Every structure is written in C-alpha cells, then in structure tokens.
C-alpha cells in the first residue's frame, strides 16, 4: 500500500469510528496505529521519530481507553502532520494536510464525547 492509499484509509477509518462508534472496536484502531508505526520505520528523521513516539503513546491510550489522553495525542499528531505537509506541494502534501485536519477534528470530537 502506498502512502496516499494508507493516508486515505486512515481518514476513512477515523470517519467510520466517529459515525459508528459501537462498530469500530479498539482493536481496529490499534491495528491502524501499528501499521503507521511500521510504515514510518526506517524513513529516518527526528520528526518521524517524534511521530512514531506519539503513535506509540496513542496506542497505549487506546488500550486503556483514556479518552482525554487520546484527544491530546490526536491533536498533537494532527498539528505535527499539518506542519510536515506545509511545504509539500504535491498530492501527498494534500493528503497529509487533509489527514492533519481530520486528526484535529477527531481530537475535538473525542473531547466532546
């Protein structure tokens, strides 16, 4: 799966999780997080290492169902994803900017739920 497809699958998974919370078990979220951690392995750079660390933290919050911490982590991931995409002027950058917005929206939705 290329990164654009992975980004789109992640966005759709987030939308499904908030539209049908009872149908989206934590295991699916953990699997998506693990897939992103794995996808970022070996790409290098401190920004990506920071994203991986935040994804690992998010995984723990999901396992513990710590919703306030999940919201904070999603917010952080959304802001960092948007920052990384800022200077990218191609399709991948567009997908990353969209993902950043969706993550920030998801954080807000989680805070309100």
From TrEMBL:
Name under which the protein is recorded: Uncharacterized protein
Per the record, the domain of life is Bacteria
């Amino acid at each position: 799966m290329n990164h654009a497809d992975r980004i789109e699958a992640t966005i759709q998974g987030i939308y499904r999780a908030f539209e049908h919370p009872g149908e989206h078990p934590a295991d699916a979220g953990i699997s998506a997080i693990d897939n992103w951690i794995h996808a970022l392995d070996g790409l290098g750079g401190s920004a990506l290492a920071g994203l991986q660390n935040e994804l690992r933290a998010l995984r723990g919050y999901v396992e513990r169902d710590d919703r306030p911490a999940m919201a904070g982590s999603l917010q952080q991931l959304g802001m960092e994803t948007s920052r990384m995409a800022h200077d990218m002027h191609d399709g991948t950058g567009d997908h990353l900017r969209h993902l950043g917005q969706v993550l920030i929206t998801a954080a807000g939705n989680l805070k309100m739920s």
